[in-house]
Amino acid sequence: MGFDQYHEPPEELPAETRTFARLATSLIEEAEAISWYQQRLAVEPDAAARAIMEDAQGEEFKHFSMDLEYLLRRMPDWRGIAKGILFQEGDIVERGEAAEAEVLEENGDGDGGAGPPGAASSDGSLGIGGLKGEGL
Amino acid sequence: MNHLLRELAPISEAGWQLVDDEARERLTPGLAVRRLADFDGPRGWTYSATNTGRVESAGGGPVDGVTATQRRVLPLIELRADFTVSRAELRDGDRGAVDVDFASLDAAAQRMALAENTAVFHGFQTAGMTGICDACAHRPITLGDDFSQYPRYVAKAVELLLEAGIAGPYGLALGSDGYTGVVETTEHGGYPVFEHLRHILNGPIVWAPGVGGAVVLSLRGGDFLFESGQDLSVGYDHHDADAVHFYIEESFSFRVATPEAAVTLDGTGV
After folding, report:
1. N or C: which end of chain A has fewer CB within 10 A?
2. What is the ipTM of this complex?
3. What does pTM read for this prediction?
C-alpha cells in the first residue's frame, strides 16, 4: 500500500490538502469503477448478473457524486466553472469556455483558483472550512 | 478582483502569504463551532440567505380568491474585525524576518473566533440568530466549582441525550476557564479528568472561548447547521504611510434543527 495520491511529500502538506488529495483519488477510483461496470454490462448476457452489476454501478454513481461535491465545496473557482457546465443544455465545450471566462473575470486574477486548498484561494478565503471531529 | 480588494494592497505576494498564514494559524484553535456543528459551504459572498422551508402569511392575496404566503429565510450575518500591520514590519517579512509583528492581526483573529462562538452558542438576537444554548430543550445542569466532579455532570448530560433518543458520539464545548480547569485537574487516584470526559463522550473536548459554562452536544450530524457564505477571509481596506489596514471577514447563518440534541451546563468556575 503506497501513498500515490500525494504528488508532494505528505509531511509538507497541510492536513486539509491531504484530505483533498484523498478525496480526489477516491473520485478517480469511483470513475474507474463506473467504467469497469459499464464494460462488464456491455458483455454480460445473464440477466441476474446484469441486475447486480447495475445495482453496484449505481452505488459508484453515488460515491462519485459525493466525492465531487466535497471537492467542489472546497474550491470555489472549480465549483463556479462546474456550475456553468453541469446539467446545462447546449454545446459542452462552449459552456465550459464561457464558465471559465466568467469565473476568471469575477476574480480578475486569471489564476483560475488553481492554488492548493490551504493557501488563500482566489476568492480570498483562508480555506478553513469545517473542522468537525477535531478536538484540541 | 473581488470585494476583498486584495490586489490593491501595497504588499508583496510573500507579504500576503505571511498575513494569510498568520490569520489561519490564529483563527483555527478558537473556532469551536466548526469542530462540533455541521459545516456547509462556502457558498460565496453573494449568497444572502438560508432556506428554512417555512412560509408566513403575506396578509391576504393581491386579489380576492387568491391566498398569499411569503417564504421565510434566514439571512446570513457578516462579521468583520479590522486590524493593521506596519509597512515596515511587512518589508522586514519580505527580507525573511520570522518575527513579524502581527499583534493587531492576532487580536482581530481572537475577536472573530470569539464572535463566531458567541453568536452560535448564545445567539445573536438582533440578527435573528438563535444559539444552541437558547434553543436547548433540556433544563441546564448546574456545575459546581470542583472540576474533579465534571465527569459526573457530563455523564448526566449524556444520559439526558440518550433518554431523548439522541445518539452519539458527543462533543463537549468548554469555555476558556473551564477548559483550563479540566486540563489541570485529576480525580482521586490521579486519573486526568480530561481523559475521563473523553471516555464518557466518545468524542472531542473543544476549547470554546465565548461559551459560558459548557455544552454537551451530539455530533451525529443534522442537528446543528452552520452555513457559510464567504468563509473567513482577509480583505484590504486602506493604507497610509505607516501601516496597511486589513480586516477579517465572514458571512454565515446558523440553525438548530434539533433542540434536544444539546445540554447546557451552567455554573461557576467557567
Report:
1. N
2. 0.85
3. 0.71
